């Protein structure tokens, strides 16, 4: 058994943060060799029971904070090198930068190199699980799955389906794309900690036939994820209306093809109406909120108050390469700013514990992985970060002055980046 003594952050079932300034985290392998949390709480209350056990190894981490590994609900590993490509908006950005870059992933060796860099960058930023797009090339999925398996990470990925309105080099064939999807599900889903996501890029780049086939696969493989984009940009929405005139709304297109269910995750969800929001709730479908991407591409502002009123699931995401940073601290900071925005919608202040929850336990719950990752309660897989709140002179000064948990968490959300992450520990399946 491994025992860590440091400050400890975790979350109650209602999402409120639980904090021990002198905490104990005990982890041990289960029968399958998966390291899991055995106990978490105050050192005083738990140390007598756990430190006396045979083989207990205690690591004392003074001045450090242990917190759940971050969960990124929407990212594109092949866009690692597209970060910071300027464009007038989503559609020109896809055409000029993203599609030409993604065409390179037909080359397995190239995909391997990017996949390895990408996963190391996630870990360096404290992200232990991500739901990621690959490209339309099946071997781009093999690349990311192989690299994640080597690192023992819980990763979910899928081959992009895009059989129209896409240039040569990234466009797939309607039927072949679906056959490849099923082959990849069988090859990777449920292997070690890996999961597969059926991945239509977005409604404009798949024919109705391909969307129908994706929905059929989603019905046949119920515990496989679904990921796509919805209601990100006004030009995109106009285009969807022309292409699918019979649909009630953009989100309605996905519903019409059986692509809304538990474990379906739609990135952005900015320009929804109340019926769309009610549909997300009814179908147990989640929104991935990507504030740094929405600011970079000038897409719009997610409406937290309407989301909470409709009570659908959501969590935070970087959306690299539309997103500007791999760091969950940058994403939480941007989410706070977007919450404050008071011109396009009503502004309010998201609480630091709620922001942190959206990138850990809340994101895990939205993915259908509540109680598995994103938290440090007994039974959770032991994916966690060791933070050094004194990693820069200003953070050292601010966090030392914090009198409440909110003040401590806010100092890190506003001032933090990859320097806060001293260690990222992944619960390797043996
Ligand atoms: N919509 C369709 N494809 C993409 C993509 O790669 N990034 C973003 N942000 N939106 C999309
Ligand atoms: Zn995206």
TrEMBL record:
Catalytic function, reaction form: guanine + H2O + H(+) = xanthine + NH4(+)
Cofactor(s) the protein needs: Zn(2+)
Coiled-coil parts of chain: none
Organism this protein belongs to: Comamonas terrigena
Protein name, per record: Guanine deaminase
Keyword NAD included in the entry's annotation: no
Cofactor note: Binds 1 zinc ion per subunit.
Domain Amidohydrolase-related: 66-409
Entry similarity comment: Belongs to the metallo-dependent hydrolases superfamily. ATZ/TRZ family.
UniProtKB keywords: Hydrolase, Metal-binding, Zinc
Its EC number(s): 3.5.4.3
Pathway assigned in UniProt: Purine metabolism; guanine degradation; xanthine from guanine: step 1/1
Gene designation per UniProt: guaD
GO aspect biological process, one term: guanine catabolic process
């Amino acid at each position: 058994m491994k025992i860590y003594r440091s400050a400890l952050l975790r979350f109650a079932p209602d999402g409120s943060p639980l904090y021990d300034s002198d905490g104990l985290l005990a982890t041990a392998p289960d029968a399958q060799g998966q390291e899991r949390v055995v106990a978490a709480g105050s050192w005083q209350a738990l140390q007598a029971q756990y430190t006396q056990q045979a083989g207990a190894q205690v690591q004392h981490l003074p001045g450090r904070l242990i917190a759940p590994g971050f969960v990124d609900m929407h990212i594109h590993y092949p866009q690692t090198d597209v970060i910071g490509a300027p464009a007038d908006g989503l559609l020109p950005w896809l055409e000029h930068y993203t599609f030409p870059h993604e065409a390179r992933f037909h080359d397995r060796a190239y995909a391997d190199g990017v996949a390895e860099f990408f996963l190391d960058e996630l870990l360096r930023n404290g992200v232990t699980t991500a739901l990621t797009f690959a490209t339309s090339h099946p071997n781009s999925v093999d690349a990311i799955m192989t690299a994640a398996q080597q690192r023992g990470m819980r990763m979910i990925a899928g081959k992009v389906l895009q059989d129209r309105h896409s240039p040569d080099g990234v466009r797939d064939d309607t039927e072949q794309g679906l056959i490849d999807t099923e082959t990849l599900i069988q090859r990777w889903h449920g292997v070690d900690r890996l999961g597969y996501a059926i991945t239509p890029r977005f409604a404009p780049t798949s024919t109705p036939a391909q969307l129908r086939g994706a929905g059929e696969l989603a019905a046949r493989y119920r515990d496989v994820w679904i990921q796509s984009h919805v209601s990100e940009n006004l030009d995109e929405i106009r285009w969807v209306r022309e292409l699918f005139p019979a649909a009630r709304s953009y989100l309605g297109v996905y519903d019409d093809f059986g692509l809304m269910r538990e474990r379906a995750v739609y990135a952005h969800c900015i320009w929804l109406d109340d019926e769309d929001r009610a549909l997300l709730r009814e179908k147990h479908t989640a929104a991935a909120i990507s504030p740094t991407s929405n600011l970079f591409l000038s897409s719009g502002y997610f409406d937290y108050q309407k989301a909470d009123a409709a009570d659908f699931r959501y969590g935070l995401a970087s959306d690299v390469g539309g997103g500007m940073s791999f760091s969950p601290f940058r994403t939480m900071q941007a989410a706070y700013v977007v919450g404050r925005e008071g011109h396009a919608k009503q502004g309010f202040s998201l609480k630091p514990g709620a922001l942190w929850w959206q990138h850990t336990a809340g994101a895990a719950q939205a993915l259908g992985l509540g109680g598995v990752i994103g938290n440090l309660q007994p039974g959770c897989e032991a994916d966690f970060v060791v933070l050094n709140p004194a990693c820069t002179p200003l953070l050292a000064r601010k966090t030392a002055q914090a009198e409440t948990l909110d003040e401590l968490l806010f100092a890190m959300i506003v001032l933090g980046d990859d320097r806060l992450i001293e260690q990222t520990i992944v619960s390797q399946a043996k």
